[in-house]
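Two proteins, back to back. First:
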Amino acid sequence: MKFTCIAVDDDQANLELLSDYLASLGNYQLLKSFLDPIQALKYLNSCKQIDFIFMDIEMPKMSGLELSKIVRSKTHHLIITSGHPQYAVEAFEVDADAYLLKPFSLGRFALVLDRITSQTRHVMERENYEENDFFFIKNKNEKSNLVKVKFDEIIAMESIQNYVSI
């Protein structure tokens, strides 16, 4: 599975480093990177859902926190990348999935992405499990009718010789 990514940072060197890190990890595709948060906003308003947005905080015209509030619904995962530790609390107030303090290593970057994608896989597995979290039984009172029973709706079961009550 390839994850789609967007990066917004007013420093070209940071965008290039992020692009290199994503390329080295393999299963991430950087669709676009933006030096201007206004251009990023225009792009995100016109595109479909993105898997990851990497967002710097201190940028001209609009801060990354302001932009994050606007575009948070456009991404599954928001990762704040900043050189300023004092914004960490505010980053999580905009529902960021992670806060990477610059400069960060490839190892730290990979660890954060692995943690996030692992959580995503667990949620997807759980949703798949919940889709199949039932069974059918034959209703004695209604001939040939099957009743769908969800496991989480069962309160008690009782067996009396050849009969089962659920």
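And the second protein:
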Amino acid sequence: QVAQDRGRGAIANRNILAHEQILRVYPAVSTLKSCFASKSCSFCFCTIMKEDYLSCTKCKCFNVCERCAIAAPTSRAWHETECNWLERWRHETSKEMATIPTEYLRFVFRFALLKSKGPPSGIFRRDIGKILPELCCDFKKLPKEQCQTLMFLAKAASKACPLIRGPTAFALLVKRVLNAHGISRGKGWMIVPSASFFNHSCSPNAKVLIAPNGM
């Protein structure tokens, strides 16, 4: 429904019981912060205690736990595309900029890869095409300085990745700021389009939990 003061939102059509599960879904797109990306699984977000054979030594921003590696044996080959985009950005940017955290860029790259190829075989398909375009993208709600930063990152991402245009990348980053949910212990962010329509509360009576498989 559309509320005048809150915009579009999901409305319960019956009483919800205590401890009842409201929604169970995989994120449409997610990314881990740079400080967690090399030691957490990119798909289920679990912490990897030992170096895994599917970790990417080139970008150091992609890793797969044993469980997800068995489910999706083509993960490493699938990741090479976004790894090449990240390498292209690092090659073309200045030395100072090459040292900044890359989670915003990797967020755009992951979206572009999922949109064009889908997830690797064995990983549950994310639905990024139907609901994601409907999410709030009102950049006027953001501070001017933040918008300028997002525009700069969007331009850099589109220059490195031929599959996404600057305006699309900017809209995606704005949606990330306005709609994303955090991943456990501040590891990163995920966009769950249907859950983004749940109105927020300063005194919430529901919470987000991440299952061992990343759902």
